[in-house]
Amino acid sequence: MSERILFQTGKLAEKNLQRVLQEIQPVSFTTEVCELGLNVAGLMTADMIQRRLEPPEGVDRIIVPGRCRGDLDALGDHLGIPVRRGPDELKDLPQYFGMGAAEPDLSRYDIRIFAEIVDAPFLDIDTILTRAGDYQASGADVIDIGCLPDTSFPHLAESVQALHSAGFRVSVDSMNPDELLAGGLAGADYLLSLHEDTLWIADEVASVPVLIPGEAGNLESVLRAIDRLSSEGRPCLADPVLDPLLLGFTESIMRYRELRTRRPDVEILMGAGNVTELTDADTSGINAVLAGIASELGIRNILTTQVSEHARRVVHELDIARRTMYLARRNNELPRNLDSRLLTIHERDPFPYNLGEIEETAAAVRDPSYRVQTSADGIHVFNREGLQTATDPFSLYPQLEFRGDAGHAFYMGAELARAQIAWQLGKRYVQDEELDWGCAADREDDDLSTQTRHGCTMGNTGTDS
Question: For residue 54, what pLDDT is reported?
Fold first, then answer.
């Protein structure tokens, strides 16, 4: 016997809900729709349902609108029937019932992120630990202590030890052999960066060296350093150095490819900062491309910095990108329709309802409260007095009636501003909700740590996480 599901809705959404349920034509369950006697389904609460609903016999599950507030577990106990929230948008019901693509598993990745604290000599140890914690929360696996040329760093060894004591993996980044040696003796896990003339440091410490060219662009010197350490059974990472755009970027990508071809088993590190920091473009797309290149070439380590204000989220972006690229490569598919958080400005499906559907909803409204929706045609505001459409909120203002209610006017101003931004950029707008800026926004309720970090594992690359 198939499952019987009761869907709760409001007057304005009832017809659209019936239409969507007919379109998906479920075979594993039967459906029944209950209009609860209120206009807007999103205003429904658990208490309201408890007061008004008498579920028919034989119902196995109740689905309420995604914006329904209240304790649904308590409601389910009262009714004796499980109550669950559905999606916010009716048109997302097929995906909710698994009739679209399955929810992707983004728990795995095979790229290690080194996050550099670039001004470490000027920071006290408590500040270094705080910044390291922020980077780790965003996805960093290794905290890179960035030294500065001709700048004293008397607390370098103490910083390495403090980070280790706090549970961080640590690298020291310097071109000063004395600082590299001090960092290695203090127990740094990695040293960035050694070349042919400073390989003696690797003989003095247990740290894994990152090898760079002795001269800019000289891949042969990197290969010789790799071969020397390999002959001694010593691990290393190799970094041919990624150059900025228009200053050798393409040639440097070719060096990474040649290194992978000539040394197929070597561990490689790529530094992203020369591109993200030195290009006036949104970093989410740049990081997606760099993570894709790294994934293609088997580069399992990326070093990044968060110095420029426009690059303030790059660790977070790389964490999302590495998970997306790992899953796409594993499934032999494009990195598409797996995760939307790197789509910070535009959206794949910004307008779930067309003008005709909005007009149909507007015609059924019988109260004075304003509803706001967007479609490809513009911003739509409607109540019982009719539907108004524009692309500029100032064109709508003369047609809206607030009767001296400053609070209502303020509310509508905020909502119409959000709607205009969403329409202009091609983002999804939902009344009473903030616009979704993906991984670009600094938010207190950022759920990356709970969504993708619990139980995450590195892929099988021969490296640890």
Answer: 86
Q: What are the tens digits of pLDDT across the range 154-204?
A: 999 999 999 999 999 999 999 999 999 999 999 999 999 999 999 999 999
Position 243 pLDDT exceeds 90: yes
Average pLDDT over residues 69-79: 90
Let me know how long the chain is.
465
All structural domains of the chain with their residue ranges: 3-96, 108-343+448-458, 355-436
Q: Tokens 């993996």 belong to which residue?
A: 169
Structure tokens at 389: 């459409």
Q: Which two tokens stand for residue 255?
A: 């060096």
- Rounded CA separation 244/242 (Å): 7
pTM equals 0.81
Task: Select from 3.20.20.20, 3.30.390.30, 1.10.10.10, 3.40.640.10 the CATH code of 108-343+448-458.
Answer: 3.20.20.20
Q: Name 235's Cβ contacts closer than 8 Å, sequence gap at least 6.
A: 208, 229, 267
SS3 for 443?
coil
Q: What is the pLDDT of residue 455?
A: 37
CATH architecture of the region 3-96: 3-Layer(aba) Sandwich (3.40)
Instruction: Round to whole Å and give the CA distance between 52 and 112.
Output: 54
Q: If DSSP codes are grouped into helix, strand and coil, which group holds residue 100?
A: coil
- The SS3 of residue 116 is strand
| CA atoms of 453 and 27, how far apart (whole Å) | 35
CB-based burial of residue 182 (10 Å sphere; 0-12 exposed, 13-18 middle, 19+ buried)?
A: buried
Mean of the pLDDT values across residues 122-136? 98
